[in-house]
Amino acid sequence: MNWQNQKILVAGLGGTGVSMIAYLRRAGAQVAAYDADLKPEREAQLTQLFKGLNCHTGRLKDALAQGFDVLALSPGISERAPEIAEFKQNGGKVLGDIEILAHIVKARGDKVIAITGSNGKTTVTSLVGYLCVKCGLDTVVAGNIGTPVLEAELQREGKKADVWVLELSSFQLENTESLTPDAAVVLNISEDHLDRYDDLLDYAHAKDKIFRGNGVQVLNADDALCRAMKRNGRQVKWFSLENETDYWADVQAGRLKAGASGLLDTAAVPLQGLHNAANVLSALALCESIGLPRTELLQHIQTFKGLPHRVEKVGEKNGITFIDDSKGTNVGATVAAISGLQSPIVLIAGGQGKGQDFTPLRAALQNKARAVLLIGADAPQIRRDLGGCGVEMIDCETLPEAVQTAYRLAQSGDIVLLSPACASFDMFKGYAHRAQVFVEAFEAL
């Protein structure tokens, strides 16, 4: 894409926005910046970083009236806003950083593995990146996982990569039209971000955009919305925890399998929980899709350590195990964490619910949970949604109070699980801060 002299407004000035300004200015575009709530100190930082940068704040409509050709959106901003729809109707182009990268990698011929889903995408992205590196590929891991893609591209100074492993959120996929991954997966679809989408199907539609082009589709055979994404004439690799398929978990035998042939004992996988067996199977399918050898992949899976705050064992006290799943910020993630653990559980949940329905937790908790300890802004809604499910619910003012109460209620052999099913910003700086408070509370017991 030729950005020379294009008039571009970059909206949203977090890490992604800053990476777009840096990349597009270097590519010769005339770039201005916009944020609805631009503090003077942030503007001063940006104008120091980018000399002569024109910054806008207030109404986006007023900023767009300055005659821009392109609106480059950060993922946090929905393109469904009326002023953005109007900008498009008047011939303006709207895109995000993934769309910009798509043109770069296509022109250069870099391979791409793309990963999305409501839950597990960071684990799968990290595992796939790890496996690609271990198999000797020059690998870039970027996207929703932390490093904005254009920041990674600038760091490489245009050098071709063997493979880009991209974690993509539905927000990033909304305005991505040109990405055609060599292999892509939608891991699962469960309620999340329904404050941004019309309904679950609308949200699933955004995820489905990851399958543009003609690369290998890796799909979850256990998820009806994922099954519906199968496209005609495409190579599909299925994974399942329930039935024999291309890649599946024989739970009775404790084996991961490919069709009839055994791959690994589940005990040899370092990651906790059955849901991580599905993550490993999908990672294997993605890596084999770009030609990596199975024997080598299986060897390296056994040395992967997993992610912090993702069903991570914190420690044990008097036979009670404490597990940090602070990154479980939606209902599907918490259901997966509970279902994946085999012992009785005392669950700590709550925070900002993002408009979710918490009733799917009912089935997961039955015959598994001794109690649910509720914290945060949406504790009353969780209590309502779980009412009558036969599990005791206790309100706690703080997370340390919840940890102490959980320890008192748990018995030897039990698990105290922090898996909030909610965002953390009502009480904490983010999920990592929430995890830190949990660990400190455990250590203080």
Explain the overall architecture:
- The structure is a single chain.
- The chain is α/β, with parallel strands linked by helices.
- The chain has three domains: 7-95, NAD(P)-binding Rossmann-like Domain (Rossmann fold), CATH 3.40.50; 98-302, 3-Layer(aba) Sandwich (UDP-N-acetylmuramoyl-L-alanine:D-glutamate ligase), CATH 3.40.1190.10; 312-444, Mur ligase, C-terminal domain (Protein-Tyrosine Phosphatase, Chain A, Alpha-Beta Complex).
- The protein contains 17 helices and 20 strands.
- Helix 1 packs across helix 7 (149-156), helix 6 crosses helix 11 and helix 16 (399-409) crosses helix 17.
CATH architecture of the largest domain: 3-Layer(aba) Sandwich
Q: How large, in whole angstroms, is the Cα Rg?
A: 23 Å
Distance, first to last CA: 58 Å
By DSSP, the count of extended strands is 20
Structural class determined from secondary elements = alpha/beta
Q: CATH H level of the largest domain: which superfamily? A: Mur-like, catalytic domain
Give the key terms.
single chain; 445 residues; alpha/beta; Rossmann fold; UDP-N-acetylmuramoyl-L-alanine:D-glutamate ligase; Protein-Tyrosine Phosphatase, Chain A; 3 domains; 6-stranded mixed beta sheet; 17 helices; globular; cell shape; cell wall biogenesis/degradation; ligase; peptidoglycan synthesis; cell cycle
What's this entry about, in short?
The protein is an alpha/beta fold and 445 residues long.
